[in-house]
Amino acid sequence: MAIKKFIFKLFFKKDRIRIGIYGPPNAGKTTLANRILLDWVGDVIGSPSDIPHETRRARLREGVKIEVDGKKLTLDIVDTPGLATKIDFHDFIKYGLSEEEAKRRAKEATEGVIEAIKWLDDLDGVLMVMDSTEDPFTQVNITIIGNIEARKLPLIIVANKIDLPNASPSRIKSAFPQHLVVPISALKGINIENLYKAMAEKFG
Amino acid sequence: MIAMTVQLSLISKDLLERMSSMEKLRMILDNVKEGKIVVLEKGLTPEEEAKLIELTMLEIDHENFVGIEVETYPQHSKSFLSKLFGKKGGRLTVIGPANRLKTLEKREDIIRALIE
Q1: A193 within some domain
Q2: What does the alpha-carbon distance between residue A120 and residue A113 come to, in Å, rounded to a whole number?
Q3: Which residues are bridge partners to A45 per DSSP?
Q4: Residue among B40, B49, B53 with most chain A CBs within 10 A, to mutate
Q5: Which of A7, A58, A126, B93 is deepest in the core (most CB within 10 A)?
């Protein structure tokens, strides 16, 4: 299967590259998707939120054209729900949701996690978003990266939220030294040009 | 002070190697849903870990079972042999119910966790 894929890629370069944006809840996946779309298309994919699991359905935006140093790419961007190994509705009640709303959100979030995992089989590359203020050695990060490596997908780790005072992108670099790590702030747009350059090189 | 008991299921590498992926995942989830802590001498492959998360999400009932906590080390870089045969063996792994097993600290070669 892998050989077939390699031969296909060798002779038939895809004119569109499908990129998944992955990561744990609240890492800034939707903020990054919005930043990319604002910069290249002029609109957004969805609303980010402080409440975890705001994105509970994968959202696909097709035909996003980016151009870096003369290199043109057409991307289909998939903003995936945050991955987790546990979802407790009590965590949502802390944000002021009623028990009924919290339980509904928790149920949708479990479905979202399954959908995000299923999408891994239909991608050409992954932007793995991590919060630079958090410990990168989480089970979710380890599992996603293991699966991306097993599928031999090109990967860029996006060390997000570097605008925050306790951000430490170097901790992410030392946790996953075998992968390209690009520190950015998706919210403020800091270093975003470096990410576009990396995407053009890695996914182009 | 009330004494708390925790039941551990320690599964040998030999047994794990004889089990199919689905058998392993079913055994892990059945144990964890009974409140037990499962220790695997040889961990799961990344694909099995993803499948375990999928099955966990399907079985969360929002009352008694809210998910799992998994303690495992990051994968080593691939050796020549594993590259050749395309197989990755996971390292020692501890899995428990999310409301009992809490990660305190996870580093490349040290994991500290709390069982409540």
Answers
A1: yes
A2: 11
A3: none
A4: B53
A5: A126
Domains along chain B with CATH numbers: 8-115 (3.30.110)
- Contact status, residue A33 vs residue A43, Cβ threshold 8 Å: no
Do the Cβ atoms of A128 and A22 come closer than 8 Å?
yes
CA proximity to B47, closest of B23, B72, B21, B86:
B21
User: Which CATH number goes with the domain that contains A36?
Assistant: 3.40.50.300
B71 or A170, higher pLDDT: A170
In one-letter notation, the amino acid at residue A17 is: I
**Do the chains contact at A114 and B57, CB–CB below 8 Å?**
yes
Name the more confident of B15 and A14. Answer: B15
In a domain, A4, yes or no: no
Q: Are B52 and B44 in contact (CB under 8 A)?
A: yes
In a domain, A14, yes or no: no
- According to DSSP, residue A122 is labeled G
> What does the buried/exposed string (b/e) look like for A61-93 if buried means 16 or more CB atoms within 10 Å of the residue's CB?
beebebebeeeebebbbbbbbbbbbbbbbebbe
Query: How many folded domains does chain A comprise?
Result: 1
Q: Residue A87 falls within a domain, yes or no?
A: yes
B-interface mutation test, from A1, A22, A85, most B Cβ less than 10 A away: A85
Chain-chain contact of B98 with A88 (C-beta, under 8 angstroms): yes
Tell me the three state secondary structure of residue B111: strand
pTM across the whole model: 0.89
Pair type for strands A71-79 and A17-22: parallel
The predicted-structure confidence for B56-85, as pLDDT tens digits, reads as follows 999 999 889 999 999 887 766 555 555 555
Q: How far is A57 from chain B (nearest CA, A)?
A: 14
pLDDT at B107 over 90: no
Q: Assess contact for A35 and A195: CB atoms under 8 A.
A: no
